[in-house]
Amino acid sequence: MDNCRKQGILYIVVPCYNEEEAIETSAGKLADKLIQLKEDNIISDKSRIVFVDDGSKDSTWDLIRALYEKDDNIIGIRLAHNRGHQNAILAGMMYSMDYCDFTITIDADLQQDINAMELFIKEYEAGSDIVYGVRNSRNTDGFFKKTSATMFYKIMRFLGCSIYENSADYRLMSSKALEALSEYGEVNLFLRGIIPDMGFKSSVVKFDVFPRMQGESKYSLSKMFTLAADGITSFSIKPIRLVFTMGVLALFVGFIMIIHILYEHYFGFTVSGWSSILMSVWILGGAVLMSLGIIGEYVGRNYMETKRRPRYYFWDVLSRNNDSDKSDKKEKTQ
Description:
Blueprint: E1 10-16, H1 23-39, E2 48-53, H2 60-70, E3 74-79, H3 85-96, E4 102-105, H4 117-125, E5 130-135, H5 143-158, E6 167-174, H6 175-181, H7 191-197, E7 202-207, H8 221-235, H9 238-267, H10 274-307, E8 314-318, H11 323-333
Helix pairs in contact: 9-10
């Protein structure tokens, strides 16, 4: 075991969006967990909890500010406006990179089992730079979410993405892995695909998922579809190749229709030809529109990438850290 990795500085990154109903309860549980880990000499006393407010429209930021004033272990980051779950996680990790030895990201509703953190840290101490959290089961999900999630992971694997099935954004990353991640400049983020693609030594920890106790999930159906689209278009060109295949098939169907029409014409079975024409229009029209839609997704995302706009902007930061904390961290890692 690498002894220099013992009692490292942990920063727990918690993305928040309209979590006023859950954040105080979650902060209390995370604070208790942080204290327990410190008392057990598992992590350094300099470890902190970083709440990232992703442009919430409710009182989430006011509650984070109140938590910061009461607890020295709390850090608050407020993004200028809503940038999405993936960007909020990235913002928290990039801030933490200068002060910590490793981060653990977890959702604000704490549906993931926080007691799995000890297992994450053990894997880190054993040499893993990335530790992935993978759900034991999806029993807490409804039928639609369970089915769609299973299909999504299978599609991603088919398209060549090195993604862990039933993985979540509950993971540990070392400062070394965070520095490597900072070199990735994608605007359309899909961290569950990018991070495994980095190639660092990694391991997996299984955890349980509990029903949400406060409020409602902020991950709407449209956001899940957006995440799926980001994942597919960020890691594979197979959909474009499938479009080409569809075009070939459509052309083949067109030739069959020509043979069919000529056969009816010469043998006198044709009545008006309305059904054949209509079928051709629907098949070819649908194939063309679907193909244009898929290609349009890639063109649109390339357009967003070429503009190189910032992925997020810190509107406000509540922190007691200073430059000496950065230098202490650098000395420790040298």
